[in-house]
Amino acid sequence: MSIEDRLQELGITLEEVKTPKFSYVPVTQVGNLVYTSGQDCRVNGELILEGKLGRELTVEDGKKAARQCAINCLSVIKWHLGSLDKVKKIVKVLGFVQSNDEYKDQPFVMNGASDLFLEIFGEKGKHARSAIGTNELPFNTPVEIEIIAEIED
Q1: Paired sense of beta strands 128-134 and 87-98, if any
Q2: What is the distance between the alpha carbons of residues 59 and 38, in angstroms, rounded to a whole number?
């Protein structure tokens, strides 16, 4: 089964990639590694959630935001490669979780992204990961994620 078929089976729609408003590119490639810029939880240009985990948002909210961030990472990879079937492995996931000072459940929030990669890619979706708590993120997004993926030569 192709990755496109798997996305359709899971009811996942990838976002259209637009030119960034700031001085960066959404994805870059070095050899057979693809690096995404940080992606937030936008759908059709609007954040699906805003706020801090442990204050306005629950773990379940955070997982939902992380899942959308992961979908947006895949959107930029597909835009760059033309097909997600060229992804050989999800290598690394780096997640930032906007949290109040006492919040300690960032790894549970990041499972929203990690679980998605496993659902889509199976064994190829197993990855190294960091879940970092931070006091602020741009535009009040609760989660921002970037990934590194190995692609077929």
Answers
A1: parallel
A2: 20
CA-based angle 108:75:7, to the nearest 5? Answer: 75
Contact 53, 106 (CB under 8 A): yes
Tell me the per-residue pLDDT of 26-62, one tens digit each, with 9 for 90 and over.
Answer: 999 999 999 999 999 999 999 999 999 999 999 999 9
How high does pLDDT run on average in the chain?
96
Where in the chain are the domains? Answer: 35-144
Cα distance between the two ends of the chain:
20
For domain 35-144, the CATH architecture is 2-Layer Sandwich (3.30)
Q: Mutual orientation of helices 106-121 and 59-81 as an angle, nearest 10°?
A: 40
Amino acid occupying residue 127? H
- Overall pTM > 0.85: yes
Q: Tell me which DSSP letter residue 23 carries.
A: S
CA distance 12 to 6: 9
